[in-house]
Design a protein that fits this description.
1 helix; 224 residues; Glucose Permease (Domain IIA); mainly beta
Length: 224
């Protein structure tokens, strides 16, 4: 199956209960994706900017038991501003590797732990591109890093995913149980009930920040 055919299947699957991401992959349960309007996540780039999705569920491989199923690759130039998709505490930072090194497990990253124990991971950042440090508390939408092309990459991009728990560090990024990635939606962009679609660009819109992972307080409008 070609990449183009996969994109078509993903588009047609919006609103359906399940799809097959790849010929050998598991069915992707669209019902597992959180309701977008109340999602805890926003797109990890600045308001009014738009970027193209390269890969999503095609990260799945049977060899690692599908832990990467819900990873998202976003095409963006080196130096693009990255913001926190969700509030949390920075638990790991790597920023020493050069862009274009092409070496697996030698990528720069920022990992943020959320209040429910899940882990937001931002990979392939540029060298010295982190603007937060371990122990920092970050708000949703706060600038955390600059994108890059470090590690085993085919082009400059950001890899974003959310793991069940952690922190899993190299070479054990995918070690279970924490290595399993979770399906996510983003409340500040176009509808995507079965996840972001490869080949499509998404613009980040204005959003409201609420009390951390809570609906009890009145949201305040934020523009960045």
């Amino acid at each position: 199956m070609t990449a183009a055919m996969i994109v078509v299947l993903l588009v047609l699957a919006q609103g359906q209960s399940q799809i097959n991401a790849t010929r050998d992959g598991p069915p992707v349960d669209c019902g597992a994706y959180p309701v977008q309007a109340t999602s805890l996540y926003i797109l990890p780039w600045r308001v009014a900017e738009s970027f193209e999705i390269i890969r999503t569920t095609s990260h799945y491989t049977r060899g690692n038991r599908g832990v990467g199923l819900n990873g998202i690759d976003i095409r963006m130039p080196i130096g693009t501003t990255i913001v926190a998709a969700r509030a949390g505490i920075v638990v790991a930072v790597q920023e020493d590797y050069a862009d274009g090194n092409g070496v697996d497990l030698q990528e720069n990253y920022v990992f943020i732990k959320h209040t429910d124990g899940t882990m937001g991971r931002y990979f392939h950042l540029t060298r010295q591109g982190a603007v937060v440090g371990v122990g920092d508390s970050v708000r949703q939408g706060e600038v955390i890093a600059r994108s890059g092309n470090s590690g085993d990459t085919g082009e400059p991009h950001l890899h974003f995913d959310v793991q069940v728990c952690g922190v899993n560090l190299a070479p054990n990024y995918n070690q279970l149980p924490c290595g399993q990635t979770l399906p996510v939606t983003f409340r500040n962009t176009d509808p995507h009930p079965c996840g972001l679609i490869p080949g499509r660009s998404y613009v980040a819109r204005r959003f409201s920040v609420q009390a951390p992972d809570s609906r009890r307080r009145t949201p305040r409008s934020v523009r960045r």
